[in-house]
Write a structure and sequence with these properties.
With about 100 residues, the protein is an all-alpha fold. It has helices spanning about 10-25, 30-40, 40-50, 60-65, 75. The longest helix is centred in the first third of the chain and has 18 residues, at about 10-25. It is elongated. It starts with 8 loop residues before the first helix and ends in a 28-residue tail after the last helix. This is Helix-turn-helix transcriptional regulator. InterPro entries: Cro/C1-type_HTH (IPR001387), Lambda_DNA-bd_dom_sf (IPR010982).
């Protein structure tokens, strides 16, 4: 696969749909079975796999990952990071948000 930064978001969704179809078929599942297992509509699955969905919610995508046994792939997408000394406050508590101080001229 080429550099993913070159693709638009709809193109990436289309590529994921094509890849999902391959996973579904290797799991020996029909689109109807995926719909029944996830509670999604058959049309949603069909459009996703054929690249006409345009967009897909994260929650829907997670359901689809679960049904083909790939939910653990989330750890590859956003792996857990080690603690950052930069985000530790003086009182040893982890910062909850980043604030930039205003500099007045």
């Amino acid at each position: 696969m080429a550099d993913l930064y070159e693709y638009s978001t709809p193109e990436l969704v289309r590529l994921l749909g094509v890849r999902f179809k391959e996973y579904r078929m290797r799991c020996n599942l029909t689109q109807k079975e995926v719909a029944e297992l996830t509670g999604l509509g058959l049309t949603t699955i069909h459009k996703f796999e054929n690249g006409t969905a345009g967009n897909l919610s994260l929650a829907t995508f997670l359901l689809l990952l679960k049904v083909v046994g790939q939910i653990d792939a989330i750890n590859d997408v956003l792996p857990e990071l080690p603690p950052s000394p930069y985000l530790m406050r003086r009182d040893e508590k982890k910062a909850q948000r980043i604030r930039h101080t205003k500099q007045y001229k």
